[in-house]
Design brief:
- The complex is a heterodimer of chains A (about 220) and B (about 350).
- Chain A has about 220 residues and is α+β, with helices and mostly antiparallel strands.
- Helix content of chain A is about 45%, strand content about 25%.
- A five-stranded antiparallel sheet of chain A has the order 4-5-1-6-7. Chain A has a two-stranded antiparallel ribbon with strand order 2-3.
- In chain A, α1 (about 10-20) packs across α5 and α5 (about 175-195) runs antiparallel to α6 (about 200-215).
- The longest helix of chain A is centred in the first third of the chain and has 23 residues, at about 55-75.
- The model of chain A is unreliable at about 200-205 (pLDDT under 50).
- Chain B is an all-beta fold.
- Chain B has a domain at about 240-355.
- In chain B, the strands form seven sheets. Chain B has a four-stranded antiparallel sheet with strand order 1-2-3-4, with no helix packed on it. A four-stranded antiparallel sheet of chain B has the order 5-6-7-8, with no helix packed on it. A four-stranded antiparallel sheet of chain B has the order 9-10-11-12, with no helix packed on it.
- Classes of the chains: A alpha+beta (about 220), B mainly beta (about 350).
- The interface of A and B includes residues 63 and 87 of A.
Chain lengths: ~220, ~350
Amino acid sequence: VSVLGIGHGNKLLTDLYNCHLTKVYTVGGLFGKATDDFSDTGKLVEKTTFDHITREKLERILAVIQGTNHKALLMHSNIDMKTQEAYELAVKGLIRPMGKSPPIITVIRCLQFTLPEFQLEIHCLHETQQYLRKIVHEIGLELKSSAVCTQVRRIRDGVFTLDDALLRTQWNLQSIQNAIWDCQLKVKTEIEKTLGPRDKSVLHKTDTEMAQAADS
Amino acid sequence: KISSAACGYGFTLLSSNTADITKVWGMGLNKDSQLGFQRSMRDQTKGYEYVLEPSPVALPLEKPQQTRVLQVSCGRAHSLILTDSEGVFSMGNNSYGQCGRKVVEDEIYSESHVIHQLKDFDSRVVQVVCGQDHSLFRTKKGAVYACGWGADGQTGLGHYNITSVPTKLHGDIAGVNIIQVTSYGDCCLAVSDAGDLFGWGNSEYQQLASVTDTTQVNVPRHLPFKIGKIKEAACGGTGNIVLTEEGNVFVWGYGILGKGPNLIETAMPEMIPPSLFGWSDFNPDIRVAHVRCGLSQFAALTNRGELFVWGKNLRGCLGIGRLEDQYFPWRVTVPGEVVDVACGVDHMVSLVKSF
């Protein structure tokens, strides 16, 4: 999922960035090897056994990772925990760092596990591809083995999911217009929810531009 | 392998289900011999008033290599130890009869060797609970016995005097099969097998205000909350918490109840949103499995082995890495699966299974 903005959408992109929404990735990994850049195309550094690894052990390690990241989440969110607003935000799950911060993982789950391969679903903020590969490598180390990352696929970027994405065959004007139309409401609600009600005129302008684009 | 832990007011007891001779260890304050007699290394005739590391507690068992210790509980200055075949042992302060034996005037509790054995119940005791200065015993037949300080009605025996012999409670729980009792301060709660909740004791903080305007209740009363079948309850000093069959957590009473700094007092149970325990659209299977109370803290254990705490953070007892009070459930990062937790006044002990 890669988000593109057209015209006024470019300005909305900045707003979306400021919402600091989570992105979701499916990350594929392979036990038994370690490479210098943590992916399976890098230079092989080490080979290890992995028969002792079970799904249960993997899930426990994932729980620990989620726990430590939870604490980092709080530290970077800059919210005073003693306020009622902090409670309201926590209930809604909106305690998130709203500024620059190191990568934080909010949810990490194991989707598939067939030795030596495994697939994880990772929800994160402010990540880089290298960070995700490094997580795979570290999981391998924690399980007393080693792992390399075979695949990183973004399946969700904020409000945009795989279902909203256009396939290569759909790269034509009509589909693009339809897609923009469908996502419009989602984008508006998310920006409003996180950044607060915006200047009504700005959003109204978006609506008229969309209407014009649809007509042409 | 430690199977049970309990935190008192400044001391801790740990026990194991083992058949070895040493089954219980204690540490902390021992000014009232709540940890038994701890012989001093420097002077063999004297005992320690402060025990700085887990030390064996010697129990006068008839069959030390067969009897097993099932559970321990600690109050302000006394403790109870439950065994499977030799009844209940009580140690510590007995100024109000909380150890289940006759009050001896001017008894000196420091460096005392006295450990009393209690066996006179209608059936085998399956749970022991220490309140601040009283003791509760739950038997296999579902009855509840109490002894100790009763000025707040916490013994539930219909009077406000002290009781020095465990006596059966009646009131609304007569004939009811009670499956759990809990207390830590001066208020008590009991849960029946049908999912009903009963309470007695102190109600100065609205703990029992749902059934009475008085500040003390000395007979067990049914609390008619319509929140579902109750599975487990826990009493703190000023607040109470229950867990329902559906896995929802309700709090009421006074203090930091867990719904932000604005909720400090309520007579009717309020539910804590499950999203605070990690429940979400991505994780819909998370449920709270157990709830526990300290004097002014609450703890909840989820079915994933995660520990959430909230309440007053005296001396950092919540373990969240900060020293400020926590107004809503916050996850404690523990390197393992939390199996059980015991809360005290200003410290907490958790039993954790490593990954």
